[in-house]
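Just curious: can you write whichever protein you like plus the matching structure tokens?

***
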Amino acid sequence: MVPIKVLVVDDSAVVRQLMTELLSRDPGIEVVGTAADPLLAREKIKRLSPDVLTLDVEMPRMDGLAFLENLMRLRPMPVVMVSSLTEHGADITLQALSLGAVDFVTKPKLGVARGLEEYAGEIVSKVKAAARARVQALPRPVQRLQPASAPPRPVAARFRTTDRLIAIGASAGGTEAIRVVLEQMPPDAPAIVLTQHIPGSFSRAFIERLDRHSQMLVREATDGEAILPGHAYLPPADHHLRVIRDGARWRCRIDGGLPVNRHRPAVDVLFHSVAQSAGANAVAAVLTGMGDDGARGLLELRNAGAATLVQDEATSVVWGMPGAAVKLGAAQEILPLDRIPARLLELAGGTDTVAGD
């Protein structure tokens, strides 16, 4: 097989060297060049035609986000961001994903050489997944998110014990896919529980960003809190989220147990708990993502009577998790991303028949 050609862009000579060494160990990857800033990267992209770009989020001479935005409009290609484990780095990385970056890896704060060595497997797997990703050109300039307060939004007039629950899981490409789903939900939508594979240091910034984009109240779940309509719940950093039944209502259970499918939080953990606690009252979806986390949980939900669907291959950044669910027979419907929010609401209304049943 022809190796994947990678261009490493980072202002740190140490990181450029280490990334080159780590990626070059895999026979399926060839590092064709490195660049210390976006201006040099632009010339090397023209000359070397890489398949994948690794890009530091904070770059000299040109704003990294401005470079990415121009790249995705004029010459769209798979980009894996390399970001720092800081609050500022998390915010920039989430903006980069909104501009079309496929995925990201994090640099350790201290001991870069040892830290990157420990992340070697993750870096290689994400570069390979990015090479297979579906990248689309930006149709128009993207307005950067600002930390300014969002305009007031309508909130459900009263809260009631919900009898329907929506569960969603995602990984690579999921930060944007989840945003698309939540921003189309009304303020009184059925309660939503979500799991997205994301480093713990990025979790709070991700939740805050989703909250700015949604009429629902998007929050970090706390252990034991009631699950209410009009609310979307994500787990706190480096914890699983489970749903437990408490009489006629559901509550959040936060679990710091071992990783499942190499992830904490894991989609299968959430889906397994929803199948046990909600069963046929649940509607579940697996969105874009690498690997197979969530596939078995979605099958368990389908067997429990829940309506199940997955994002289609054409609109997924990486069709790993949805594809695995399809192979297991867990998905009753396969839909493009833009149709998923309305379909989730239809199915949660309890009046629709699932295609293929």
User: Anything to note?
Assistant: The chain has two domains: 4-131, 165-348. Residues 200-213 form the longest helix (14 residues). The CA atoms of residues 146 and 197 lie 24 Å apart.
